[in-house]
């Protein structure tokens, strides 16, 4: 009976060890420019989000909204859409229109090579 218990315990540890890299394989945000909660003296010309792995262009987006909830860039109807950086496919960029002083929300959604979609949001302020 003890041998069976040890065998089952070993199998559980082996499965957990082998599946851990796959569980951590989802694209996650490493950094952003502007940074989350940043207070900027000048409006940024673009948003650049860096992820821990390459992102799939067809399933990745950035949307910028103003304080009143109006979409300013990145919406489906907008001409400016987020693009994956040609030299580094782990970076997603969105060119911005001129921004005035205010609080802005960046909402992002990406899919990595494994196809799992991740999303998040943060704010920044322009003085």
Notable traits:
127 residues, alpha+beta, Immunoglobulin-like, five-stranded mixed β-sheet, four-stranded antiparallel β-sheet, 1 helix, 9 strands, 38% strand, globular, metal-binding
Give the helix/strand layout.
Elements: H1 2-23, E1 29-33, E2 39-40, E3 46-51, E4 61-65, E5 71-73, E6 83-84, E7 91-95, E8 102-111, E9 117-126
Parallel strand pairs: 2-9
Antiparallel strand pairs: 1-3, 3-7, 4-5, 4-8, 6-7, 8-9
Report on the architecture of this protein.
Keywords: Copper, Metal-binding, Signal. Pfam families: CopC (PF04234). This is Copper resistance protein CopC. It is found in: Cell envelope. Its main location: other. The chain has 127 residues and is an alpha+beta fold. The protein has a single domain, classed as Immunoglobulin-like (Sandwich), CATH 2.60.40.1220. Helices cover 17% and strands 38% of the residues. The protein has a five-stranded mixed β-sheet, with no helix packed on it. Strand 8 and strand 9 form a beta hairpin. The radius of gyration is 20 Å and the shape is globular. The chain starts with a helix and ends with a strand. About 16% of the residues have low confidence.
């Amino acid at each position: 009976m003890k041998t069976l218990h040890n065998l089952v315990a070993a199998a559980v540890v082996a499965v957990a060890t082998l599946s851990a890299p796959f569980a951590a394989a989802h694209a996650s945000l490493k950094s952003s420019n502007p940074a989350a909660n940043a207070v900027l003296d000048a409006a940024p010309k673009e948003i650049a989000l860096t992820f821990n792995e390459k992102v799939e262009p067809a399933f990745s987006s950035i949307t910028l909204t103003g304080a009143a909830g109006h979409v300013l860039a990145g919406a489906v109807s907008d001409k400016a859409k987020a693009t994956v950086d040609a030299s580094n496919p782990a970076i997603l960029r969105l060119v911005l229109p001129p921004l005035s002083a205010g609080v802005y929300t960046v909402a992002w959604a990406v899919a990595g090579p494994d196809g799992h979609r991740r999303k998040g949001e943060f704010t920044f302020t322009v003085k």
